[in-house]
Design goal:
38% of the residues lie in helices and 17% in strands. It is an alpha/beta fold and 345 residues long. Helix 8 crosses helix 12 and helix 9 crosses helix 10.
Length: 345
């Protein structure tokens, strides 16, 4: 009985994090990062787990659209990671705000901090090409308008005493992440890479974010949570593809041979959009590929000293291996720990 009480006390002393959207690329990487830092991690998923988890994550069944489910899942949590999105960009208008409101309600009930992965959708061309945390948010797309409203609601929540951390980054790619531009447009999962389809206009720079680096950045910020403002926003630089061709070069080095470089046919996307829901949503974001857009990480590096950055060849090799796109696993595929800009692991 004494040992049982001691075990319970030790468990209660270990901070608990709830991941809403744990099956996505962002949520899964943040889960791994938190476990490595000694957190207990609880993942809320819509489908019941078929087998006992071997990764140390506690899984509970719940729907992000159901407030009672989220509040119940967040019991005793000190952190809620809101990494859930409707799949394939569908039903954003009807789902993203209610899901966020439920997370805010759960954080209010449990006293948890909210972590929210941000994006460039908030910004319009008037703020380009270099974006800071204070750049004006004047989007002209539906998804951008919703993103602005989400952050407004988070800021209002912070004014009621709920700590919020927003980390904005470029287009995600990384191991086990399949719902992104890299895996849905550039390459074809499960097939060797013979060609790369580039959505970017010629010489238009683009910003990418390797998910383990995003998770590590969030982790380092949380390590200094006591120093964060109640509403803390930071931008990552990630991998800056200055001419839209550098990522393709990294893909070629990973596969070990030249690949055919093709431009994504935006006209084809436009013609198919009335019949393919995903293409309708993709078409709305075309402007992000037409001009250079870069986020400044100066505020982040001023605070942390450096931004975690995995060498691009290792990041791309690891991603392609996880997608089943390499005929032979790369020797560097396992070396995907984030590295500081100064070379420190």
């Amino acid at each position: 009985m004494i040992y049982e009480n001691q075990a319970n006390a030790a468990e209660n002393a270990t901070p608990l994090a709830l991941i809403v959207g744990a099956n996505g690329g962002v949520g899964s990487q943040i889960s791994k990062m938190l476990l490595q830092r000694g957190w207990r991690v609880r993942a809320m998923t819509r489908q019941p787990a078929q087998t006992a988890a071997a990764d140390g994550v506690e899984r509970v069944t719940g729907d992000a659209m159901n407030r009672q489910d989220v509040v119940g899942a967040a019991k005793d949590a000190k952190l809620i990671v809101h990494a859930v999105n409707p799949p394939g960009y569908r039903n954003w208008d009807r789902q993203v705000l209610p899901m966020l409101d439920n997370t805010i309600a759960a954080a209010e009930a449990s006293g948890a901090r909210i972590v929210f992965p941000g994006s460039v959708y908030n910004f319009g061309p008037d703020a380009f090409p270099l974006l800071t945390e204070d750049s004006p948010q004047k989007p002209f797309t539906r998804k951008g308008t919703l993103r602005v409203e989400m952050e407004r609601r988070l800021k209002m929540a912070s004014m009621r005493g709920i700590p919020v951390l927003i980390v904005r980054a470029g287009d995600f790619f990384g191991p086990d992440a399949k719902n992104n531009w890299f895996s849905q447009m550039l390459v074809r999962p499960g097939k060797p890479v013979r060609s790369v389809q580039n959505p970017a206009a010629p010489h238009a720079g683009h910003q990418w974010a390797y998910l383990p680096d995003v998770a590590e950045t969030i982790g380092r910020l949380l390590d200094r949570a006591d120093e964060l403002s109640t509403f803390a926003v930071y931008h990552m630089e990630g991998f800056w593809d200055f001419d839209g061709m550098q990522l393709t070069g990294a893909i070629e080095r990973a596969v070990g041979h030249p690949v055919k470089r093709r431009r994504l046919s935006w006209l084809g996307i436009k013609l198919a959009a009335p019949f393919v829901p995903l293409f309708r949503e993709v078409l709305e974001m075309q402007y992000l590929w037409q001009m250079p857009i870069r986020m400044s990480n100066r505020k982040l590096t001023d605070f942390l000293g450096t931004e975690p950055k995995t060498p691009i060849d290792i990041a791309v090799s690891t991603t392609l291996a996880s997608l089943g796109c390499l005929e032979e696993a790369p020797k560097a595929a396992g070396l995907h720990h984030p590295v500081d800009a100064g070379g420190r692991v």
